[in-house]
Amino acid sequence: MHQLKHSTPGTRRPAGNASPATMFWKFDLHTSSHIDQLLDREDVTLRELMEEDDVLQECKAQNRRLLLFLSQDHCMQELVSLITTEPPADLEERSRFKFPNVACELLTSDVSIINDKLGGDESLLEMLYHFLEQDPPLNPLLASFFSKTIGNLIARKTEQVITFLKKKEGFIGLVLKHIDASAMMDLLLRLISCVEPAPLRQDVLHWLNEERLVQRLTELIHAGKDEERQSNASQTLCDIIRLSRDQASQMQENVEADPLLAVLESQESVAGLLKNMFEGERSEASIVNGTQVLLTLLETRRSGLEGLMDLYSQGYERSYTVNSSILNAIEPHLKDFQQLLQDPPKKSAILTTFGLLDQPLGNARLHVARLVAALLQTNAPNICQELCNLATMDLLLDLFFKYSWNNFLHFQVELCVASILNHPSSEERGYTCPLFQKCRLLQRILDAWEENDRIQADGGTRRGNMGHLTRIANMVVQNLEKGPVQTQISDLIRELPEDCRGRWESFVDETLRETNRRNTVELVSTHNMHSSSEDDDMESPFPNDLSLQQAFSDYQIQQMTASFVDQFGFNDEEFNADDNSVTAFEACCKERIRQFDDAEEEEDIWDDKEINYATQCFVSSPGPGWTANFRDSGETAASQTSPGWESSAGSAAETQTGWANFTEFQPFSG
């Protein structure tokens, strides 16, 4: 290697005014890549280059010699063959898919010379397409390589690839034939969302509509179909709805409507989906997957965490209107959903954290509860009236108290009650009347509360639905004080038998007030706030707590397995210290501590404040067995033995302190 001579201390630049960069190249200080050394050989093979760890880096760095080598016909054919052909089974498992993986990364490295070669050579596209012509099932890893490669071409060489695919009459049929592979679902969504410019995208949407994509996906949601195919078909339809609505909200008003969304929202399409769900032998898979599509159609905002962020950033401005054709198609089938609540698909007993559950609630009934909550939120008169006639709320309340540990169900019932109390009806007594009279809401709250007090007095565990029951009771009191159905609630309470009315008033004034006092967290001290009647009447720019909870609940349910909602039951007050609650608690503590340094303030900051019945923020309070540990920050600060775990069977559970015993759980089943 050449050696540089040291310059004298006073010298600022190399002799001859040469820059450091010039010196670098002049003396050849860079280390040449081993790939370049391999390329110096005339007999170098593609596999030898792919063995190099930095081959992908060199490719993305536009190493011209490497790119010229890779773009040769025989190299491109070998790369495509690697991602579409099953590797020999006798290879070591960890190395079987090494070359296919590297080949996929090279083909999708987004280098123009490779994109041009792959997208412009029809023989290479034919090799790719041949992968779809195999009999199912596809190798899931190869399917993902194929989908990624085609998806990259759809985004980069759009016109060439779309023209090629449209000439293949059976393309959509082959994709749906392999829809059990999630990679095929991704491919369809790329066709819908990654095509630019807008006129070409609209052309693709019309082509997919002419191929009856929506109808063919809907036909897959049927009791006679494989559950994996049903699930992926359902998810694809849901994603099409959300993608189409998002893109429509970003387009100008004069842009042509999305034909796929128009079909999905049509009464004929929704009716066809419902027919498939209830035709023949009922299966939980078809009920759940079909209901997920209906729930997506009924969304007035994006679901899950994306919807949660929209609520925070934009309030309710970003919303969608529920098409009346959807509701018209659902209404005749409300009796079928009611029947599902009464007689769900059979499920075997399962062992849970609180004992043996002989007849689990099941994912089907949970999704029906979600659907009823979504329908009530539309406040559509015909839908609400039919639900009243069927006494659906009465049945949901029965399930609320029967499955006292299923908080997913409890939250949906709470949403139903909130919708009825927050939406005034055009009728004289509205839908509030059946809730208080036929469903006997107040009597049920009082009876359940007294029953829970008896259980706890005997040393038992607090019921898991008590937190939601508290919120429902507060909701009634709130709407009695100020709400759209204030007069109706007041009249209905006056019509209660005298002993029941007395029990309710005593419960509100004493028991509920004390419960709220224990559960309330003061986020900001009153001494830092001014009071004015104008501020009291102002609406907050942020969405209400129930809407945020609904968005998060939707996200949670999307992540759960079918059996998780039955396997785990928690007391929602004991186990409700989520991130928001912890953040609120820390903010409260900091506020309290700061006030001790305020010498000018003489008010006792720990005085009891006025208790109201607004939606409370619950933080679990220390129970028996709670001990503080301040030895050092690296250790556990507190330990708690919750009564919720004490019912676990077996001697192993008795030796635990605050942890569940999972040794006797039955295996999860779909």
Number of helices: 37
Overall pLDDT metric: 79
Percentage of residues assigned to helices:
55-70%
Total strand segments: 4
Report the β-strand fraction as a percent range. Answer: under 5%
Query: What strand line-up does the widest sheet have?
Result: 1-2
The profile of the biggest β sheet is: 2 strands, antiparallel
The rough form would be described as: elongated
Textual characterization of the structure:
This protein is mainly alpha-helical and 670 residues long. Helices cover 59% and strands 1% of the residues. It has 37 helices and four strands. Strand 1 (350-352) and strand 2 form a beta hairpin. Helix 11 packs across helix 12 and helix 23 runs antiparallel to helix 24 (362-378). The chain is elongated. The chain starts with 19 loop residues before the first helix and ends in a 16-residue tail after the last helix. Belongs to the SAPS family. Residues 636-670 have a biased composition (Polar residues). It comes from Oreochromis niloticus. Residues 631-670 are annotated as: Disordered.
Features:
two-stranded antiparallel sheet, 59% helix, 670 residues, mainly alpha, 37 helices
Task: Give a brief outline of the structure.
The protein has 670 residues and is mostly helical.
Helix-strand layout with pairing:
Elements (H helix, E strand, L loop, with lengths): L19 H7 L7 H6 L6 H5 L4 H6 L3 H7 L2 H12 L8 H4 L1 H10 L4 H9 L1 H9 L9 H17 L1 H10 L3 H7 L4 H12 L4 H13 L2 H7 L7 H24 L8 H6 L2 H12 L5 H14 L6 H11 L9 H7 L3 H9 L7 E3 L2 E3 L4 H17 L2 H10 L1 H11 L4 H16 L9 H5 L4 H17 L8 H16 L4 H9 L3 H22 L13 H5 L7 H15 L4 H4 L11 H17 L31 E2 L9 E2 L11 H4 L16
Helix pairs in contact: 6-8, 6-10, 8-11, 11-12, 11-14, 14-17, 16-19, 17-20, 19-20, 19-22, 20-24, 21-34, 23-24, 24-27, 26-27, 27-30, 27-34, 30-31, 30-32
